[in-house]
Amino acid sequence: VQLQASGGGLVQAGESLTLSCAASGSIVSLNLMGWYRQAPGKQREMVAVATSGGATNYADYAKGRFSISRDNAKNAVYLQMDSLKPEDTAVYYCALQSIRGNYWGQGTQVTVSS
Q1: CA–CA distance, 86 with 75 (Å, rounded to integer)
Q2: Between vectors from CA 90 to CA 22 and to CA 94, what angle results, nearest 5°?
Q3: Which of 8, 21, 37, 97 is an S-S bond match for 108, by CB 3.0 to 4.6 Å?
């Protein structure tokens, strides 16, 4: 399974970004896809995840500002990020978890300037 993430970039505080991730390969239909992030000097943390059935879970800091969505037909997951803050600056990783294993994308840099 390969995950290809895109959509990162440099934005100013208060602006929005949408991240996209497409999975390819042998994918079990029942799975969890989501986004994690890692800021310099910090551990990787969950941002938001969504099951193939539509259930979602958000980190507290993401609630109300970020929205995760999926397109199961395309094995894709998206993260709409609004009202971005400088503390959202991190490398964002796409992930897929299934009974066959856990897979990670290469990461996409999001930088929010104040």
Answers
A1: 30
A2: 20
A3: 8
Tally helices (H) and strands (E) across the chain: 0, 11
| Cα(46)–Cα(27) distance, integer angstroms | 21
* Contact (CB, 8 A) for 44 and 35: no
Tell me: the pLDDT tens digits for 26-39?
888 889 999 999 99
Give the separation between CA 18 and CA 16, rounded to whole angstroms.
7
Q: What is the pLDDT of residues 73-106, one digit of tens each?
A: 999 999 999 999 999 999 999 999 999 999 999 9
Q: Is 87 helix (H, G, I), strand (E, B) or coil?
A: helix
Q: Which single residue is written with the structure tokens 């897979």?
A: 103
